[in-house]
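Why does residue order matter? Because the sequence determines the fold. Keep that principle in mind as you read this record.
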Amino acid sequence: MNLKNISEPENDPDTIICYQDEVHFMAESTVTRAWYPKGSRPKVKSYPGHKSVAYSGFVIPETGELFITKPDWFNYETTITCIREFLTSHPVEDGKHLYIVMDNAPWHKKAKRLINEDGQYADIKEAATIISLPPYSPDLNPIEQVWRVTRREKTHNRFRETLEKLVGVLYNWFSTFKKPNDKLATLCSFAWSQTKRINVVYHKVPEDVAVVGYDDFLASHAVPPMSSVKSPLEDMAAAAINIIHENNHSGGEFFARTVALTPKLIVRESSRIKL
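Structure:
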């Protein structure tokens, strides 16, 4: 199953949808933007070397629950092992079905094929369906937001003397999200994925509540189709090319300029009441 087919399970109250991904966190310090007193020269020590720690994570956007494992490396075998560990820690209730969304890494593709075709993985196939993201679309995976906020709040501009101390910090951080929580539920919930929760609370979209998304990612595949603000991507690209072209022919003088482009509101059923 591909992500374009997710609309039906996303809006089925008997389904649970989680998103999986792997990540490395470096022991070496990473420096990024931050607020400091004007005129100061902040410095960050750095761990010598390029050691890192690997994690495989599963997040349920509806509740914010996060499950983390620590494989030694990433391949189809560790992927299957991590899925089984997740299923053990989050057993699926009777009458429910789990959908696990993951990207198209080669080891994910092989794990998905084996789960679907090999009988020795029937326990996983019975409990869960694997869904593949479209190629080259990491922004569609909500767990990327978990890695982003982890780096921002726990690793960027911070010095850890040893890899073990970094592991300890990350363990304590990830442990705070084992149970349902608002932080990750809010951070990982895309507008198009919220119609399930809204339909449960308000009963009907758009009769009781209107929903509008942004960027128009998969908005037409939501149930009901979602109104969305569409960025003028083609105009943005054309404007950038024109600026580069003009600067290349300016005789060495480069000019900063402000370009205003107008997004477009695409009205669909999620914000339009049929009378």
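The mean pLDDT is 85.
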